[in-house]
From TrEMBL:
Record InterPro entries: H/ACA_rnp_Nop10 (IPR007264), H/ACA_rnp_Nop10_sf (IPR036756)
Record-linked Gene3D superfamilies: H/ACA ribonucleoprotein complex, subunit Nop10
The family this protein is said to belong to: Belongs to the NOP10 family.
Keyword Oxidoreductase: no
A Pfam cross-reference name: Nop10p
Origin: domain of life: Archaea
Recorded coiled-coil stretches: none
Record keywords: Ribonucleoprotein, Ribosome biogenesis, rRNA processing
Signal peptide per UniProt: none
Protein name: Ribosome biogenesis protein Nop10
Length: 64
C-alpha cells in the first residue's frame, strides 16, 4: 500500500509521489482512504457523550 498516493486534479490519473501528473502535467492532490474516516467515529462518540451528559443534567428527557 503506497503511503503517498496522489491523484491528478484534471484527468484523475493516480500517481505516486509525483509533483505533477504524468499524463497531462497538471497538479496532483493527496488521496485519502475513502470514508473510513476517523472524524465520523469521533463524531459518533461525541454525540453519544453529549447525549449521556444531557440525560444526566436533564433526567426528565429519559421519560420521553
Ligand atoms: Zn492528469
Amino acid at each position: 500500500m503506497p503511503t503517498h498516493l496522489k491523484r491528478c486534479t484534471k484527468c484523475m490519473n493516480y500517481t505516486i509521489s509525483e509533483a505533477n501528473c504524468k499524463n497531462c502535467n497538471s497538479p496532483v492532490e493527496n488521496v485519502y482512504p475513502p470514508r473510513f474516516s476517523l472524524q465520523d467515529k469521533y463524531q459518533d462518540y461525541r454525540m453519544e457523550h453529549f447525549r449521556k451528559k444531557m440525560h444526566e443534567k436533564f433526567p426528565d428527557l429519559k421519560k420521553k
